[in-house]
Design brief:
It is a single chain. The chain is α/β, with parallel strands linked by helices. Helix content is 45%, strand content 13%. The chain contains 22 helices and 15 strands. β14, α15 and β15 form a beta-alpha-beta unit. The longest helix is centred in the N-terminal third of the chain and has 34 residues. The protein is elongated. 34% of the residues are buried.
Length: 545
């Protein structure tokens, strides 16, 4: 804080003549202009010999008061042997502090004295800041950790402080803290789906938020160095925060962030516990075979000391990418499927299902060049999210990329719901994919697209190689789609039934298969449907059905 005019007077020996000495002095200015105010900022002690001042001083004084100078000091013994009575009267009337500078006191001595006082004040501020940081550091080393830092911070700022978790819930607050009001304001600023108002383009919160009102000065800062805050702390006082206080607040934020980040190992341990709880639910507890009420209660008891909870039934299972964990974790139960859990093979290893599907492709597909599949990249195991059915859409919107969603189920049906979510997640689509919608679109949506198309290419290859004519494939499509009825298929193609019979005889010869065999028809239906799904938009090729 800058020195007061009273301190400057004591240090320099200036003689006060009018006004109070409570104003602060931030600098010293020397001017002989009749109107020096364009070159002043306010809070200066203006020194002058008054060589151009005479007559009516009221306008000169009024301009200085309007500019907010700390005081006017007139040097006597040069232009004026003493302070003019008119100047003294004008200063008294306007409330401007007026000082006399003795003849033996050079102006530069006054400037040096103020500069030394300012330097001493700055050094004192730095010293106080270092001392406060030391006290905060010692508080951080106490067993209470972050809570002790919050308590110490409130004392340092002469106000109150509170610690909030990533959801905005108050975890610790000092006496008279307006933490609940700050939490409500935090929720408002966070906005829908965690998109911060006033944040950056990446949706992250600002580094600091000022929530000050007319009678309260409040600062809120996020904690954590990751893409999303690990928590928040808020501090308030009845007066504005000085630069020293701001430094102390920032130091507290660094200590709290360090404590939060050092809790990363604890978070990983909590995630392992949640994975074990998920395994318990999938296995059905102690040999129960399904997650009954007793199993669910045991799972809740395990989570309770960690502050976690399971959603109430009916539950929806979401499968999200691993990089969405940070966004979803604060809002729902999240876990990785443990390797020891008894879950359907496709729910844990979708690539194994693809391998098995490829193994069921007929020999002609596996031996044909068209059936050779590219090496699939290893799939990252998605994160499993358990959420109440009513909150499923809201939580799913927090995750970027593909989100697989199961149908609502009880905990006893959790393995099947997990299988549904994983199948939806592995559908290859972007955004939210509901298993109910996926299953309603046909059998092919449950098969790997690459494997299905390779199977189709291999099975139909003899027809494709039969010259450049496509009428055999389309005739087969109409025949299968009409369930083997000659007249309906011929009418569908606009040809005579005898022409269709000839074409089907040729198809039978080329494929070496009996079209009256239901299994053969099923395989051909799948191949034709896969070929239809691979057509570009606007193609006229129809479904075999």
């Amino acid at each position: 804080m800058a020195p007061s005019l009273r301190t400057v007077v004591r240090r320099t020996g200036l003689r006060p003549l009018a006004g109070t000495l409570d104003s602060v002095v931030r600098w010293v200015a020397v001017s002989e202009l009749e109107d020096p105010t364009p070159y002043l900022e306010g809070d200066e002690l203006l020194l002058t010999t008054g060589m151009r001042l005479e007559g009516d001083f009221s306008q000169y004084v009024a301009r200085l008061v309007a500019r907010g100078v700390a005081g006017l000091a007139l040097g006597v013994g040069l232009s004026h042997e003493e302070v003019p009575p008119a100047l003294l009267a004008a200063a008294t009337a306007a409330g401007l502090p007026l000082l006399e500078v003795p003849r033996e006191t050079p102006f530069i001595a006054v400037g040096k004295a103020v500069s030394d006082l300012l330097a001493a004040e700055q050094y004192d501020e730095i010293t106080r800041a270092f001392a406060a940081q030391g006290r905060l550091t010692r508080a951080a080393l106490r067993t209470e950790g972050p809570y002790a830092v919050i308590d110490r911070l409130a004392k340092e700022v002469g106000g109150w402080a509170a610690l909030l978790d990533e959801h905005g819930e108050v975890r610790h607050a000092t006496r008279a803290a307006k933490a609940e009001a700050a939490a409500r304001e935090l929720a408002r600023l966070r906005g829908e789906h965690g998109v911060w108002r006033g944040g950056g383009a990446n949706g992250r919160p600002p580094a600091s938020l000022a929530l000050s009102g007319p009678d309260e000065h409040v600062v809120l800062q996020p904690l954590g160095g990751g893409p999303r805050p690990r928590g928040f702390f808020v501090v308030g006082a009845s007066r504005a925060f000085s630069p020293v206080t701001q430094t102390v607040i920032n130091a507290a934020g660094s200590l709290l962030t360090l404590a939060v980040e050092q809790g990363g190992a604890q978070r990983e341990a909590e995630r392992r516990v949640r994975s074990a709880v998920l395994g318990l639910l999938l296995d059905g507890g102690m040999g129960e075979g399904r997650a009954g009420p007793a199993c669910v209660e045991r799972a809740r008891a395990v989570l309770a000391p960690l502050g976690g909870r399971l959603p109430e039934e009916p539950v929806v299972v979401l499968a999200v990418a691993g990089d969405a964990l940070d966004a979803v974790e604060p809002h729902a139960f999240t876990a990785h499927v443990p390797e020891t859990a008894h879950v359907p093979e496709t729910a844990r290893f979708p690539e194994a299902a693809r391998t098995n599907e490829a193994a069921r492709i007929p020999e002609v597909a596996r031996t044909n060049e068209a059936a050779r599949l590219p090496d699939a990249a290893p799939l990252e195991s998605p994160v499993v999210v358990l959420v109440a059915a009513a909150e499923a859409e809201k939580v799913a919107a927090l995750a970027e990329g593909t989100v697989g969603m199961s149908a609502p189920s009880a905990y006893g049906e959790l393995p099947g719901a997990l299988d549904q979510a994983r199948r939806a997640f592995e559908s290859g689509r972007d955004g939210l994919v509901r298993f109910a919608d996926l299953a309603g679109q046909g059998l092919l949506t449950l098969l790997d697209p690459a494997a299905a198309q390779a199977f189709a290419a291999a099975l139909l290859a003899p027809l494709a190689r039969y010259g450049s004519r496509a009428d055999l494939v389309e005739s087969l499509r109409a025949y299968i789609g009409s369930n083997g009825h000659w007249d309906a298929a011929a009418q569908r193609l606009g040809i005579h039934r005898h022409t269709l019979r000839y074409r089907m005889k040729r198809v039978t010869e080329l494929l070496g298969r009996d079209l009256d065999d239901p299994g053969v028809r099923a395989e051909l239906w799948i191949a034709l449907a896969a070929t239809s799904s691979a057509c570009p938009p606007g193609s006229s090729r129809s479904s075999p059905s």
